[in-house]
Amino acid sequence: MKSSSFCPDHLTFAIMPETQPPAVKALFFDVFGTLVDWRTSVAREAKAVLEPLGHQIDWLGFADAWRDEYQPGMEEVRAGRMPFSKLDVLHRRNLERILPRFGLTDLSEEITARLNGAWHRLDAWADVAPGLGQLKRKFPLAPVSNGNISMMVDLARRNGFPWDAILGAEIAGDYKPKPRVYLAAAEAFDLPPDACMMVAAHTNDLAHAAACGLRTAHVARPDEKGPGKGEAGPSTPVDIAVGSLMELAVQLGT
After folding, report:
1. 68-92 pLDDT, tens per residue?
2. Alpha-carbon torsion 77, 80, 81, 82, what sign?
3. Rounded distance, CA 173 to CA 184, Å?
4. Which CB contacts under 8 angstroms, 24+ apart, belong to 184-190?
5. pLDDT digits over 122-145, tens only?
């Protein structure tokens, strides 16, 4: 078959033979929400740190409020209004912004730092460790996350993530969904973008990865933000849509 594509340089239609994309040679993973259950983990950690001090708050509401500051905080960097800062730094700024809403205005530096470290102590969804283990038999694996390297190391050691490298925002010096984050990951593995597959539970992440030439796989996490408040499926076309990483491994022939 033949396919036509618009050639803007000459304002004509060029007829080109269809070509198959190269085989997927590496898998990149979003982490928060895709691999780890940030909501219940942050709520648990906040309770463990604050309840012994006599604080009683809506722990899940606290986790949600903290996460709601995530994108606005990164947008300060993406828009050039502040220099690149690690996510740990942004999380701390966001934490200090929400503490007064929950009546938490008297926390010591030690307690605040322990609380900020909650993002290093998140638990994975049940399918993740076995799924990554299966996928690693065939593919190099790396997180392409907005989380900083030390955070990704701590989450990997806690949950048994078998990474071959740790890529993402700190390597690129910017935050997803800026193109540089996806392209820097492909470059790190000496691969063209279309030989790499981005795996995420968020359609927006995948759409931006696809715009950079990466292949895409959506993993449903329908309860990420609370019961029924996550994505049960992608809202735009992707290469693969699955319900777990084990299902992804089967789809990719591992």
Report:
1. 999 999 999 999 999 999 999 999 9
2. positive
3. 10
4. 185/28, 185/142, 185/144, 186/26, 186/214, 188/142, 189/25, 189/26, 189/140, 189/142, 189/165
5. 999 999 999 999 999 999 999 999
Rg (CA), the chain: 20
Q: How far is CA 225 from the centre of its chain?
A: 14
Quick one: tokens of 215?
């292949």
The single-letter code of the amino acid at 141 is: L
With a threshold of 0.85, does the pTM exceed it? yes
Would you say residue 22 has pLDDT above 80? no
Q: Has residue 188 got a pLDDT over 70?
A: yes
Distance (Å, rounded) from C-alpha 42 to C-alpha 35? 14
Residue keyed to tokens 């969904």:
177
Give the Cα separation of 49 and 42 in Å (integer).
Answer: 10
What stretches of the chain adopt beta strand conformation (E)?
A: 2-7, 12-17, 26-29, 141-145, 167-168, 196-200, 215-219, 240-242
Contact partners, residue 97, CB within 8 Å, separation at least 6:
69
Distance CA 206, CA 163 (A): 20
Strand (E) positions, 8-91? 12-17, 26-29
Chain centroid to CA 105: 31
The contacts of residue 172 (CB under 8 Å, 6+ apart) are 178, 180, 181, 184, 185
